[in-house]
Design a protein that fits this description.
Largest sheet: 6 strands, mixed
Number of domains: 3
CATH superfamily of the largest domain: Cupredoxins -  blue copper proteins
Strand order of the largest sheet: 10-9-12-17-14-15
Oligomer: single chain
Strand content: 35-45%
Distance between the termini: 69 Å
CATH architecture of the largest domain: Sandwich
CATH topology of the largest domain: Immunoglobulin-like
Number of strands: 32
Structural class: mainly beta
Length: about 575
């Protein structure tokens, strides 16, 4: 080292400005940025909100609806202190976060924790490992997530670029449902009567319904763009009970991410996104737009035989420095050409485009061999109207609506399954005998069987650590075939196959994609069809898998995986935090 270099180094060490600059340069180098602990405070309070000319008090986080945006980087530790200042129990789920060995922070009530009682608090602490993109957080108790939700943005490590051109701006866009009534009263009434619940009154963009609804033009979400610039919309379907079509008039979107996993980019004019799912999509503003404003719209996709919110919500894409659109102009914006509400073909065509990057930097380690195979028949059912019934029987043919997997309707326990597992106190809490296949097979997508009554129980599937699992999720026609968005807590999975009709192992397995299947945490079981997923049980704990249509979850469409510890210290579930809420 020359004397001049030594003099420069001595000067830099002695100069605070030079030293700070050198540290900043080093920290900006890829792979050298230390992970951070990012802290947030969630105060759950009631707030007065007006939508559709209806003013009511709703549960919120920090008085905001939707709730605050959380931003972290891959590798960061997130610490969120939740204080419950409302008169209802509450928990929070960090939807899609792997929660590696941090199952105590996953959040579903009575699965990984007991609820945070009024006046109580709990600190959720977990690390973001191997994930980047858009996820979200929401309440996981009853139907409180109708208003308790917000985005969770995971940026790549500092210095690591996106595998696509960097957008000019990134915009979280949460698609939700608004109820003029109290959603808690809606589901309480449905469970009392045994019938279907009343539907929502509007769909929303970041909590705003827009000009297609009564007195709501002033409550319109507006995205202002500059000609020629590219924007990334971080789409999140936070709706309680509806899959949604999404489109922007006169614009093509490019999908680049799904459920915090990069995908091979593909173009689409119409998207379909199920409750629980996220997508990052690129929108490039026209260099010479034909208009100063364009409609962004959502409308439902469903095949239900029951009632549903068959309305269209509109937001506005506004160009440049043009004056904001008037109420009359907003109402007259031409809508994008969205499919009919029951267009399953459009959904299948869109869904077929998803492929993992499967690159050296972002591989797709799909299991090639399977240790345990499962076949889950997913759908609705019924409970008989017989004594004792705490309510009435307004379901089909004087029954009460129910839902099940393999004809087992999940019964929510009165204590935390994860705590019972950690303490090895299973008696009276759970049974480790969930069926691997229907005990009475039938023509799942044909004429339903005469007996559609379900059984009930808190039944789980125990798995050895590192077991490779394949699950075929088969829709049924009981009470009508319809799509079911299934969400698996604690894991991502690979979607290796899908089709219509009844799954046929002898023919369908050969068609699996084991090269670049999409990686997700929520997948819709196709209407009158099936989907096959694979994952490795490498995360010890108790993990619920459930339909993300909350009405079906309320009727019992869920089950749980109990993943045992591995032999090594870093493969074991740690003890619960000292402040974890108690059940009694």
């Amino acid at each position: 080292m020359g004397s001049s270099t030594v003099r420069r180094l001595r000067w830099c060490v002695a100069s605070p400005a030079c030293l700070l600059f050198a540290i900043a340069v080093i920290l900006a180098m890829p792979g050298l940025t230390a992970a951070r602990t990012r802290r947030y405070s969630f105060n759950v309070t009631m707030a007065t909100v007006t939508r559709l000319c209806v003013t009511k008090s709703i549960p919120t986080v920090n008085g905001r609806f939707p709730g605050p945006k959380i931003v972290v980087r891959e590798g960061d530790t997130l610490v969120v202190k939740v204080t419950n200042n409302i008169n209802k129990n509450v928990t929070f789920h960090w939807h899609g976060v792997r929660q590696l060995r941090s199952g105590w922070a996953d959040g579903p009530a009575f699965i990984t924790q007991c609820p945070i009682r009024p006046g109580g608090s709990y600190v959720y602490r977990f690390t973001i490992t191997g994930q980047r993109g858009t996820l979200w957080w929401h309440a996981h108790f009853s139907w409180l997530r109708a208003t308790l939700y917000g985005p969770l943005v995971i940026l790549p490590p500092r210095g690591v670029a996106y595998p696509f051109p960097k957008p000019h701006r990134e915009v979280p866009l949460m698609l939700g449902e608004w109820f003029n009534a109290d959603p808690e009263a809606v589901i309480r009434q449905a469970l009392q009567t045994g019938g279907g619940p009343n539907v929502s009154d509007a769909y929303t963009f970041n909590g705003l319904p827009g000009p297609t609804y009564n007195c709501s033009a002033k409550d319109t979400f507006k995205l202002r763009v500059r000609p020629g610039k590219t924007y990334m919309l971080r789409l999140i379907n936070a709706a309680l009970n509806d899959e949604l079509f999404f489109g922007v008039a006169n614009h093509t979107l490019t999908v680049v991410q799904a459920d915090a996993s990069y995908v091979k980019p593909f173009a689409a004019t119409t998207l379909v996104i199920s409750p629980g799912q996220t997508m990052d999509v690129l929108l490039t503003a026209a260099a010479n737009p034909s208009s100063q404003a364009f409609a962004i719209a959502v409308a439902p996709y469903t095949n239900t035989v029951g009632t549903f919110d068959n309305t269209t919500a509109v937001a506005a894409l506004e160009y440049g420095a043009a004056a904001p659109q008037s109420a009359a102009a907003l109402r007259s914006l031409p809508l994008p050409a969205l499919p009919e509400y029951n267009d399953t073909g459009a959904v299948a065509n869109f869904s077929a485009n998803f492929r993992s990057l499967a690159s050296a930097q972002y591989p797709a380690p799909v299991p090639r061999t399977v240790d345990r195979h499962f076949f889950f028949a997913v759908g609705l059912g019924a409970d008989p109207c017989q004594s004792p019934v705490n309510g009435t029987c307004q379901g089909p043919n004087n029954t009460r609506f129910a839902a099940s997997i393999n004809n087992v309707s999940f019964v929510m326990p009165k204590t935390s399954l994860l705590q019972a597992h950690y303490q090895r106190r299973y008696n009276g809490v759970l049974m480790a005998n969930f069926p691997a296949a229907p005990q009475m097979p039938f023509n799942y997508t044909g004429t339903p069987p005469n007996n559609t009554f379900v059984t009930h129980g808190t039944r789980v599937v125990p798995l050895r650590f590192n077991t490779t699992v394949e699950v075929v999720l088969q829709d049924t026609s009981i009470q009508g075939a319809e799509s079911h968005p299934l969400h698996l807590h604690g894991y991502d999975f690979f979607v290796v196959g899908t089709g219509f009709g009844n799954y046929d192992a002898s023919n369908d397995t050969a068609k699996y994609n084991l090269i670049d299947p999409v990686q997700r945490n929520t997948i819709s079981v196709p209407t009158a069809g099936w989907v096959a997923i694979r994952f490795v049980a490498d995360n010890p704990g108790v993990w619920i898998m459930h339909c993300h249509l909350d009405v079906h979850l309320s009727w019992g469409l869920s089950m749980a995986w109990l993943v045992n510890d591995g032999p090594l210290p870093n493969q074991k579930l740690p003890p619960p935090p000292s402040d974890i809420p108690r059940c009694s």
